[in-house]
Design brief:
Chains A, B: It is a multi-pass membrane protein. The structure is a homodimer of 491-residue chains. Chain A has 491 residues and is mainly alpha-helical. In chain A, 71% of the residues lie in helices and 2% in strands. Chain A has 3 domains: 1-42; 46-204; 210-237 and 250-423, Methane Monooxygenase Hydroxylase, Chain G, domain 1 (Up-down Bundle). The interface between A and B is large, with 71 and 71 residues.
């Protein structure tokens, strides 16, 4: 009786599950589809790349579908398919690097392979496989060893692989066929066809340039530092006037910079294979980005300490914090502004060094104020002295960060010369920019304050500014009065 | 006349250069050879790997050299050569991952390809290339898109590539040949032969296990932290008694840890493909290494700040430094010892938690002493207060480092349970270990102090220890008195 009941319950359960299955399957499938859609939307270039690969494959299939082409290449056409699949990389640099490596390695290894077969034939029928075996073993081992050298690994790893592959294949198959030159020629020509299709599709159909990605990545990392600094100010001094709720989540934006080295290295390596494109010339100083990125990462390391101060439970007495709050806020805000200006300078490839230097000077002045504030507000009782240690650490880390911002600015300055950045003046620094002098007979529309920046970037006018050399003064409302004697000439 | 002289000078120069050429060439060649030799000696496994690849290539060439084998496989033997070249990776995990990916992807794509050809043939001679083209385009694009998903990219990237390759090749060549099943079978069988040769050579001829490399790397990174701490003590307090000249170079050993993430990720990923080997079981918790490595890197980030303090010009007054020197020295020494014990625990796969905990407790006690020292020795004049900021930063960073050492110790403890570390007692902590209690009738040879450690690790004896729960006391000579009531039972 009990077993019967048990069986009935089991059956009901099974039926219920069977009933639920379609809806569960539907839920699962829609969830997956949504996930895939979101993934594609996050970076639509992924979808475009997939379509590009499909396109290249369809193009190269013509070697089989079109009778005259099939007649001249025959089954060797599969090398073209193989090449297309293997060489199609996401970035133009990746495709060029693999394509050129493959082409040259096949050429060299094919020639050597043909030579090896001719050499081996001199040794008679019995000696031939032995000589070929020794040659394949030694060249294969030597080329494999060469792949460990960092310089070869970085740029020619794929070439070395294809060298071993082609040499072995030509040398070994040479033992069984007399048409070795035909094989080598067909292999080389189909690889060239496949490689050319890939490279053309990669460059001319929605190209993804590794160099541009690197350029944007470095600029965005600097912006992340700036956002983290802003977020830090809001989180460490919650009473700060400028705090908005949005900034708090940004305080940990710097985290991704700590582990971005390998991506940057790869991009810089691929960018060197790319021809000039957009704003980048052929010999753009790609390796200099790595220097800047290294400094940015060093700076992000100090943010990690700053973040530790934010998360720490041991907070100093509120009155002490409030005494140093103002200089600390100014330091982080000005350093953040300097970082933003540096990032903008990289993004627009124009020099904003006046603006950057002013912000750095402002933050340095604030450091002096901070020192002063620390001097007068050191607590007197023993207990308090220990409590303020985390605050002192925070302050000293902020000072370190400013010195890194300066280093980043210097290295971007150096870079801007090499990369031929265009000279530019930040209109924010020249309050008189609104009142243009009329120097020619046409009517010049007065530029409104809010429009200054766009106007200045886009107009072909030459803007000359003269700045006084005195350090900028920082007043309580944190208005930059650094460029007081600016005169503007619009030609 | 002058031209004549000029020509004579040029000729003399040219002759001189011609004369120097052999010796210069010789110098250059010997320099290169020495460089290559040194590179091979640095990690002899590189040479062994190169020889292994040569060996696999020679073995697979037999498909051509041996008449019966050539008769059955024909020119398809080249797929075996191709497989050997592409699948031979440095580590066993790499070879297995590529080999299995290649085999399964070929199997699935081959079956789908044959199906696609049969489907296309239903649409008549004109419709066939169109249907095939659409299938190749859509499956190629979909598989390419799937390679962007992190989970697929991490483990099945090569499989997806081979899937596209095989499917396109089988589907497209199916248009021109009726022997498509023969082609698919030959391709699959030769790939299996090539892959099997690679995997066997990789596992049985001087194997390089990614798992073991990861294991050693994590342990060595912890040792690097310990060395940097020791070096820091010597460099920051040059008058310290324990300073030897050798330690100073070690202070920046931690630097390599900051950028080791990608190597660790790769090794952990490959290790999961490896079968059980040596001390590691099949389901060894490889991903847990990444957690430990993450904490080690977090700790290394604080070393960067410490290093900044060492390099900083702004040194505090000597009398202030000398007041906090002792607790700081003890903190760094004890934290260093704790790190060394943790690294030893990982290396030997035995638990040394008593030893580690004692050192951590000691360093925590020293932190209390440091706080006390800071309390009594805060300078009174205003100027000095600012001067000591870098020292306070240093001290607070040291305190942070101790908390990270504790976190690392906890995470290694967790890991040791999952990885079945054997229980072990550090003989240094148990002074009574020399006097074993005789519990059975055989003679137990008294263990000498110096031999304890080895004896303890190798003997099959069960060691049971009872510790008192009081925190260890730290006396001036820094002797650990943590485990005072230890009783040892040898069964």
């Amino acid at each position: 009786m009990e077993m019967d009941l048990n069986a009935q319950v089991k059956k009901a359960c099974f039926l219920q599950r069977l009933k639920d299955f379609p809806s569960k399957l539907k839920d699962g499938v829609t969830k997956h589809i949504k996930h895939v859609q979101k993934f594609g939307k996050d970076d639509p270039r992924r979808i475009i790349h997939s379509i590009k690969v499909g396109l290249s494959l369809t193009l190269v299939s013509m070697l089989y579908y079109v009778r005259p082409l099939y007649n001249s290449f025959g089954v060797s056409g599969m090398w073209a398919i193989l090449t297309v699949v293997v060489v199609s990389e996401f970035t133009v640099g990746g495709t060029l690097s693999k394509g050129l490596n493959r082409a040259f390695a096949t050429l060299i290894a094919g020639a050597l392979g043909v030579g090896a077969v001719h050499l081996a034939r001199l040794c008679g029928h019995k000696g031939e496989p032995i000589v070929l075996g020794i040659l394949v073993f030694s060249l294969g081992a030597a080329a494999t060893f060469s792949r460990f050298f960092p310089r070869i690994k970085q740029r020619y790893d794929y070439g070395a692989l294809i060298f071993i592959l082609t040499f072995s294949m030509v040398a070994v198959s040479g033992y069984r066929t007399d048409e070795i030159l035909v094989i080598a020629y067909q292999r080389l020509s189909t690889i060239l066809i496949g490689g050319t299709i890939c490279i053309l599709v990669s460059i001319f159909v929605f190209p993804v340039w590794a160099g541009e990605d690197l350029h944007k990545m470095v600029a965005n990392n600097i912006i992340k530092l700036a956002n983290s600094l802003e977020g830090f100010e809001g989180e460490y001094f919650p009473s700060s006037e400028k705090t908005s709720k949005g900034t708090n989540s940004s305080v940990r934006e710097y985290k991704s910079i700590l582990t971005s080295k390998s991506t940057e290295d790869t991009l810089a390596n691929l960018a060197r294979w790319e021809p000039g494109h957009g704003r980048f010339r052929l010999r753009h100083p790609w390796t200099k980005y790595l220097k800047i990125a290294g400094l940015v990462r060093q700076c992000a390391i100090h943010f990690e300490v700053l973040n530790g101060c934010v998360l720490s439970d041991a907070k100093a007495p509120q009155d002490f914090i409030s005494k140093i709050q103002e200089p600390c806020s100014i330091i982080s805000r000005e350093a953040g502004e300097a970082l933003k200006a540096i990032a903008k300078s990289i993004k627009t490839m124009s020099r904003y060094h006046v603006c950057v230097n002013t912000h750095i000077k402002n933050s340095k002045n604030a450091i002096e104020n901070l020192r002063l504030a620390l001097k007068v507000s050191f607590p007197e009782t023993d207990k308090d002295l220990l409590e303020i240690i985390p605050v002192v650490t925070m302050a000293s880390t902020l000072i370190d960060i400013v010195s890194y911002v300066e280093k980043i600015s210097e290295s971007v300055d150096e870079f801007s010369v090499l990369a031929h950045f265009k000279e530019n003046l930040d209109p924010k620094l020249s309050p008189e920019l609104g009142q243009h002098h009329l120097l020619h007979k046409g009517t010049v529309k007065p530029v409104l304050e809010g429009d200054n920046e766009e106007e200045c970037n886009n107009s072909p006018h030459v803007v000359i500014a003269v700045h006084d050399e005195q350090p900028p003064t920082v007043n309580e409302n944190n208005v930059n009065l650094g460029a007081e004697k600016t005169t503007v000439v619009v030609v």
